[in-house]
Amino acid sequence: MPMVRKVQGVLCPVRDLARAKAFYGETLGLPLREEDPEGRWVEFGPPRGPGILLYQGAAGSGGGAMFPVRNAQRALRRLKRLGVQVGDLVEVPGMMIIGTFYDPDGNPHHLVQSLRPKAPRRRRASEGGEVMPPEPQP
Prior knowledge:
It is globular and about 45 Å long. A hairpin with a 5-residue loop joins β2 and β3. Mean pLDDT is 82; it is low at 128-138. It has helices spanning 17-27, 72-81; strands at residues 9-14, 32-35, 41-44, 51-56, 64-68, 85-92, 96-102, 108-114. The chain has an eight-stranded mixed beta sheet, with helices on one face. The chain has a single domain (9-116), classed as 2,3-Dihydroxybiphenyl 1,2-Dioxygenase, domain 1. By secondary structure, the chain is an alpha+beta fold.
């Protein structure tokens, strides 16, 4: 069974978060998905699909792809057993656990375990029972 099934998004370190926010939001026109209340990061992208998470850091210091996993600690241990160079686990309280690993060229990538509760699954009419209407679009 594959450990990784999709790309969640991309991490991108930036020197000036306000300038980067203006570039990605106003210049490129990407919708703002979420913003850290403490101003440490912002995420842009369409409502569905991968996004780009910008965070304050040394530009060019690496970012990498984010891969959603059910259990970041277990996935990181598995990669280590396979001979992959791995970093530490970092928890963003109430949001996610991130485990960093490096490809053969030393590029960092990230396994991301969500700590947020899952939204209830919508039922299809063919499954019987009540069908939830689609969410209104802004």
